[in-house]
Every structure is written in structure tokens, then in C-alpha cells.
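Build the 3D complex.
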Amino acid sequence: MRLVIARCTVDYVGRLTAHLPSALRLILVKADGSVSVHADDRAYKPLNWMSPPCTVREGTGEDAGTWTVLNKAGERLVITLEETLHDSSHELGVDPGLVKDGVEAHLQALLADQIETLGPGWRLVRREYPTAIGPVDILCRDAAGATVAVEIKRRGEIDGVEQLTRYLELLNRDPRLAPVRGLFAAQEIKPQARVLAIDRGIDCVTLDYESLRGFDDVDARLF
Amino acid sequence: MRLVIARCTVDYVGRLTAHLPSALRLILVKADGSVSVHADDRAYKPLNWMSPPCTVREGTGEDAGTWTVLNKAGERLVITLEETLHDSSHELGVDPGLVKDGVEAHLQALLADQIETLGPGWRLVRREYPTAIGPVDILCRDAAGATVAVEIKRRGEIDGVEQLTRYLELLNRDPRLAPVRGLFAAQEIKPQARVLAIDRGIDCVTLDYESLRGFDDVDARLF
DNA sequence: CCGTAAATGTCGTCG
DNA sequence: CGACGACGTTTACGG
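Done.
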């Protein structure tokens, strides 16, 4: 990883055209070949960047101080260095990577294991039930045996309702399943998403991750 | 901006729970208060981060080498430094910022100014036509006087078709406008999006940004 | 390699 | 401050 602090201008031509006037910035070159240009704000997002795979050509002689970064798609990032205040390189090695907990996949697993959270007598048909346009998070049957398609989100927004609507349209063409009801399950459901869901006859339920995990721990100890 | 290269472990507890085992990484502290932990890959995205506004407390004495980053929402990022290989700070000042060109807003302006690109005799009603669920990019009338709602995207995908579908549903309830046709306009339309659009009776058109901009320049010179 | 869905998305804008 | 949509979204996962 190479860290350069320099006064520079930057021009990007690719999916859009962008220009950065001269200013002091951090230029970060990673071992994967990516280059990013950071100001002292904007959280972690750079002002400009080039994602790998790409190649950096550092100018020599005539165009010394000019870095040209190119990728396969023909996108181009040109950095012109005017004054370099710092330049250091560091070998970091391969990172062991991140361990995550609490994302949608985990919610889905917990809910599938405790499907009766949705109602007494409910039974799981399967997780990731395949359809022509993608897998439905959970397919199950309620106490009366009616099919229910469940879409799970951490945060329930309109696009999640649209997604479930597409699945329902498809599932309801299958006579072995129809009629299929929809259930929109999320830790938090945005008001507009709830309105849209209800308007389409889709039920909504908010999930309590901590409580799902808690019961799961209890089950794990009992069996 | 502070740059630290160190062997460290990181724990994040907030919207999810995440842990990073010990490894050499870059820790970037920006003037806006944000903290990010980078490996030597993954383009510009950090392994862990905390967005501003947040506060960093650097441990002293007993918990020296432990940084605790907190935000208002109670999210917590704890970085434990085991070995510091580099530590430098740099005053960058305020960045003059980025000049962009070629995004959706610009496409919309160009197309609105040259609405006859869509067909001879077409007339603009207005850009950003307001509805209860948000503004329609362009509302216009074709040569026959029929209303057309245009949704503009740089890349046309399924969610854009869904968005236009919702607008059309609403607009068609207005007797002064109905019947309203839909037109999905993008620089590039994905096959699946095109299939869905056509299935719903929505026309598709691909926009040539260069040519729109070219004609615009000509117009600018003529008038 | 393409296509879809998730993301601690982030970021701007507008109410 | 919340809601909403764009983003050079990026990234992971399947076919």
C-alpha cells in the first residue's frame, strides 16, 4: 500500500466526466491495483478512484508527475502531482477478512428455524425457494395450509415490496401453490413501504433480531 | 488527516456486529472525524469504519493502544493497536470539490430541451412533474396530443421500470391526463428491464448522450 | 462473464 | 431531521 500526500489535479473520463482543481489530497494505491484520491472529509468515500483491475503508468521525463490509471473498459483517471509532501509504501499482506453477524442471511436462517414466530401451526416449505426470476427468501404454509411467500429485509423499503410482488405474481401461476399470500418481514418497515404492501394485500411484520437470536440460543441448549 | 499503519484488531457493534482478527492495516482518521480501517485490497471500501459525526477516544494508561469511536446512535468501533509501523498527520485544508458532467440530471435537461428527439411534434409539459409519490422526470405530449410520462436513467434496469409503472398507475387516475403512456429512456437498457417494460406496454428508447450534448451545443450557438 | 439482490451502503435534495 | 432517489454505486453470490 502506497500513501502519497500531494497537491494535485485529477481528471476522470469514463462513466462520467469529472475534474478536481488543484488541492492537497491523499492518494492511496492499494496492492490490488486500485487508486483512490481522498480529501479530508466525506467519510470513507474518495473524491475520485479507479477500481481494480487497472494499470497505473507513472510519467517519466516529459510528463513526470503525471499518473495515468486505465482499466479495460477504457475509463481513465489522470492525476497530476504538483508538490509531494509525503510518499511511503507499506507491505500489509493478505487480510484474514471480516466476520459479520446480523445481516439478512442470518435473519432468514433464524426465522426459518422458528417459523412459528409468524403464527402457531405454520410450517416451513423451504428457504430460498427457487423461481424463474430468483429465489424467494422463505416459502411456508400457515395453520390452514395456505401458501405464504416471505420476503425478509433488514430495513423494509419500497423496492422490497416490489420484489415480493414480482415473486407473488409468478408463484400464483403455479396451481400447486396458488393462492399464495405475501408477507413482508423486516426489522424496520418504512411507512411508504407499509402503505404499498397493504395496498397490495401483503401483510407486514417487524422482526426482533435480539429475541429471535435469544430463542435460538435457548433451542441450541435444549437440543 | 492522520495515517496510521498498524497491526490491529477491530470490533464494530452497531447496525450489525463485526470482528477483524489481528493483521496489518491502514487506519485513516479524517478531519471530519470519520475513521476507516483499510486492508490492501477491496478498492476504496474499508473493512470497518465509522462515519461522522463521531468521536475518537484514544486510551491512556491502562487501555493505551485502544481507540474507541462512538457516534450519536450508540454505534461503537473499537480498534486495538498492537504494533504501530507508521503514524503521520497532514493538514490538507478544505477541498474545492468535484465538477461532474453526464449524470441523470444533465440527461434530463438535455432531453427536455430537445423533446422532439423522441418524435416530431412532441411538446414538453414539464420536467419533474410532481405526483403524490414523487416527481416524474418528464411529462410531455406526443404529436397526437396524448400524454407521455418519461423516466430517464443512465442505465435502465428493472427498478426503473417499476418506478415508472407506479407513476403511470397514479397519473392514469387523473382524468385530465389519462390515458398516459410510459416511455423508458436510458443510455443503456438491460434486456430484463426491456422485457418487463414491453410486457407492461411501456416503450423503450436508448439515448445517445454525446449526440444530445452535440445538438445542444449547436442550439446554444444558434440562439 | 452476466444478472440479481444486499449494503453498517453513501450522498444529495427537498419537505 | 426524516424520507426518497441517484450513484462512476460497490460487493457478494448464482447460473
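Residues 71 and 151 of chain A are 38 Å apart (CA to CA).
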